[in-house]
Amino acid sequence: MPGKSCCRPNRSGWLFLFGVFHRLSFDLYSILHNSRVGNPIKKWQQQGLWKDVRRDILYDRERKNGEKEEHMMEKNGKKSLFSIEITTGSLWKNILLFSLPLMMTQVLEVLFNLSDVAIAGKFADYLALGAVGSTTLLVSLFTGLLIGIGSGVNVVVARGLGLGSHEDVEKTIHTSLLICSGIGIVVCLVCLLLAKPMLLLNTKEELLPGAVGYLRIYALGMPAMAVYNFGNGVLSAAGDTKRPLLYLSIAGVVNVALNLFFVIQCHMAALGVATASAIAQWLSALLIMRHLMNQKDACRVHLKKLCIDKAAAKRVLMIGIPSGLQNAIFAVANLFVQIGVNSFDSVMVSGSSAAANADTLIFNMMSAFYTGCATFVSRNWGAGKTDRILKSYRIVLLYSFLVGSICGGLLLLFGDKFLGLFANEAD
Fold this sequence. Notes:
Largest sheet: none
């Protein structure tokens, strides 16, 4: 038996009904004017109008069902402790709570390579430091590309969740998993086959053997990194940025422990830290996939449902590829800077490699807020809450500016201590 609320559509409901009535009345007038009154639905079907009207009705119904489901979860206290409210509540508070774990996640992802640089510099020699440091720009380039593809997944899934369209979310997730895995495999093959030609651009000859070996072993973890970024994008779209941080933190601890073991006990230098990073990447991917396969909502991954949906793939790639290329632009520009640095001796190259880590860290910290902005804009756009879109953009702009200013100021004051993390000698 319908309740009272069924008889009281809100303002957007009245506008929707008015738009449908206007479109249908115009067509009905045309039919009456030509004295061909018959079955109006059949006539609309012939003209293609009924298909559009039916799509609009289903769209509005799915969005309202999604909002109703979210409201019931909040009312019954079933909302996950890991989730952040995106379409309701204070934007200042929720964007900050959403972006801080995401910022730490992206920093940890970059720290896989930076911890390799630090341990190689502390417990090996300057040649190992220079070899690992010479790969930092290429690793940042490919890492930025994979993070960008994950951002595309995040935006499209967030919009689907905002609309309440579980079917679209399901198609997007399973399509995105295949896309991200495929791109990760391609990146891996590029690094394995073209490591030496790429490193010749920015690596001194005496550092080249160690750098090539490091990049090739590190590349074995690229498919896992792509899968992790896929999972991070899906969970972030659902408002959960804490679980990806937890999983990557576990992998980070394992990475550091294996780094120390391979370098100090096994004396593997650059090859040892690369092996540790690849193992840690696969661990983070396994943890996040295990969680997604045990989900009880639309974000669950079913291996039997893996297939490519052309529409979903197009949406993800149209956002993910530009985002990934944007992240990679800085690394490409720094490659040319590195060519000039290589005209100096190996000690100078090692010092430059250590200092360049600051740029990567700060950029990724600010980038986390950009991803947060994309998530909030997409979810609220899908939910029809356009008033929160521009507010989200302005808040994120302020937060990212503050992060850049604070981190830049700290580097000016404590830059020597930061560089001390990557080398023992002051030279």
